[in-house]
Design a protein that fits this description.
Elements (H helix, E strand, L loop, with lengths): L8 E7 L11 E7 L3 H14 L3 E4 L5 E2 L5 E7 L6 E3 L3 E5 L4 H10 L2 E2 L11 H7 L2 E2 L2 E2 L4 E8 L4 E5 L5 E2 L2 E2 L5 E9 L1 E2 L2 H18 L19 H7 L6 E2 L2 E3 L7 E3 L5 H19 L8 E2 L14
Parallel strand pairs: 2-5, 3-5, 4-20
Antiparallel strand pairs: 1-2, 6-7, 7-15, 8-16, 9-10, 11-12, 11-15, 13-14, 17-18, 18-19
The chain binds flavin-adenine dinucleotide (FAD).
Length: 303
């Protein structure tokens, strides 16, 4: 009923592990890939009226999805990919891959997203996470963001109306990013492409890209590195079930084949406890997990 007359792919009992770079997660009751903002909004409104839970996933590269699956409708933004190039600006829908956008801007000789070439998220997820690397972050390029607010209204917010910090955006759990406008500066095409290539080489040397992972698991505490602390505490290479602290980079947890969400959570908890007791530092996770915190609306989570 909720999806009647709506365009876009719909799957029932769909394995969430297909929607996460960690390759973890049980069956989703319904997964829907909206192809335009209008359909996304209609489904959102109908679900709200019916009090059916709704979840939002981008490219699933920063997400731990539950072993028990998800009730209701899991919306995935990856088919929202309209893009309009302007004069050193771009207006792009939330599901567009950030790395591809960075490459395409670089090919034009537009500077600003060199840091993003190796980040496997969507542009919408990148705004929510304020994705960054190599001393830069997406917030610096944002001009405006069009969002779906939780009262069902679409609103365009200018950069000044948003707050960003290290891996933080004031929109998180408050609104869905539908479209983003970014600004670039004129650059040297060859230099931009060279920088991006070098960044990719550094990543493949330092990160366990050959195994399913979700990037850095913990945020860096002020003045220190989470990877350094975890390695110093002796966790490199340690496993719980199918989840293993990477041998290559201690702030990455890799799925060695059959990892469950509960394995990753157990490893995260044990690392946090140990680092706290050895160094008095409380690590905070950078990866998100889907839970009642980011639930949009539901009559009762248990039903
Ligand atoms: C190998 C690897 C390397 C990585 N390197 C980096 C790095 O260098 N720097 C960095 O910052 N991150 C890095 N990441 C993490 C990740 O790619 C980023 O956080 C990315 O921005 C997440 O985007 P996503 O579309 O995958 O979001 P998802 O993982 O799908 O979602 C993350 C959160 O954002 C929410 N969300 C997603 N889309 C939207 C939207 N349109 N509106 C509202 N909420 C939304 C979800 O509900 C969820 O809470 C890396 C990950 C991997 C696997």
């Amino acid at each position: 009923m909720i999806l009647d007359g709506i365009t876009g792919r719909v799957e029932r009992k769909y394995p969430l592990n297909q929607l996460s770079t960690w390759k973890i997660g049980g069956p989703a009751e319904v997964v829907y890939w909206p192809e335009n903002a209008k359909d996304l909004l209609s489904v959102w409104q109908r679900a709200k009226e019916a009090e059916i839970p709704v979840w939002l996933i981008g490219r699933g590269s920063n997400l731990l999805l539950p072993d028990e699956g998800l009730p209701g409708i899991t919306m995935v933004t990856t088919a929202l990919r309209e893009i309009h190039w302007g004069d050193y600006t771009v207006r792009v829908e939330a599901g567009y891959p950030l790395a591809r956008l960075a490459q395409e801007a670089g090919e034009r000789g537009w500077s600003g997203l060199e840091f993003a070439r190796g980040i496997p998220g969507s542009i919408g997820g990148a705004v929510i996470m304020n994705a960054g690397a190599h001393g830069s972050q997406i917030a610096s390029q944002i001009r405006s963001v069009t969002v779906l607010e939780m009262d069902g209204t679409l609103k365009r917010l200018e950069r000044e109306e948003l707050k960003f910090a290290y891996r933080f955006c004031s929109l998180r759990n408050q609104a869905w990013v539908i479209e983003v406008q970014l600004a670039f500066s004129r650059g040297d095409r060859e230099q931009i492409l060279k920088t991006m290539k070098e960044n990719l080489v550094k990543r493949s040397a330092n990160q366990p890209l050959e195994k399913p992972n979700a990037g850095s698991v913990f945020r860096n505490p002020p003045g220190d590195s989470a990877g350094r602390l975890i390695e110093a505490a002796g966790w490199k290479g340690k496993s719980m079930g199918g989840a293993q602290v990477s041998e290559k980079h201690a702030n990455f947890i890799v799925n060695t084949g059959e990892a469950k969400s509960k394995d990753v959570l157990a490893l995260i908890e044990a690392i946090m406890k140990d680092v706290r007791s050895k160094y008095g530092i409380t690590l905070q996770t950078e990866v998100e997990s889907i839970s009642s915190e980011n639930l949009v609306f539901a009559k009762d989570l248990e039903n």
